[in-house]
């Protein structure tokens, strides 16, 4: 998420930062895939002054005063509807306006009180339905927001946070250090493995696996400052579904029979979302889709969803007053028979 772009600058200056190479490419693809909805999505994605930031409160250093203050400022609690799984320990607040709280600074030894995030990124976490004592794998864990959110939901018996990119790994470690108390760190393992090798390294180990896959990060790509790099990204974009598929194959190996797997991306791209999940379902007789339409119905007050043609897949698209997403979420279950 591109937090640094939201500064008090005139809209005209911000517009200059948009990368035309990327916008033209998205225009061609998404106007076909999303139809008329793309016009609104494009307007929001290219206007950082419209972006919204949710405030996830840290249960390990709970900010009671801040919570009161958020209520006074007109923030409301996310997921006020009756989601099938919504732990009381997870508290996230959002405002209908693009107000953004300042980020807290990292201080060694002091736990931060809140984490700013795109509210849609909590949907994959909630879809995983983590329970106390379970073994969970966050396969592509940096920068750490979803691992942090998982720990707001339950106390896992074991949480494995993996990140292959060494720079992002540092960011992940700092996030965990900033929010998680020392005793809980003992049940967390951080590794730097190529996610495609995890299944062979730890076969049928985990009750729950989250694959928040590397993808065309639509929000940040639109603001690429180097148009040559952007053009290179666009040309390499067609390789991403192969990588995503390989990560899912590995995740499926690492998942125990009966376990749940959630796949998520922050792109609108059908090739990286529905098509990848369709290929998984067609390739594995022991992987079943899990219907999550109820989540969309319950969350429609806070999020706008585009049709995916899948009962197991949701796509959050940015909308006026609900500028969350893009976020694709798919839920799968590994059956006992192969």
TrEMBL record:
This is NOP2/Sun RNA methyltransferase 3. Residues 45-335 form the SAM-dependent MTase RsmB/NOP-type domain. SUPFAM superfamilies: S-adenosyl-L-methionine-dependent methyltransferases (SSF53335). It comes from Bos mutus grunniens. It is found in: Mitochondrion. One of its GO terms (molecular function) is tRNA (cytidine-5-)-methyltransferase activity. GO terms for cellular component: mitochondrial large ribosomal subunit. GO terms for biological process: regulation of mitochondrial translation; rRNA methylation; tRNA wobble base cytosine methylation. Keywords: Methyltransferase, Mitochondrion, RNA-binding, S-adenosyl-L-methionine, Transferase.
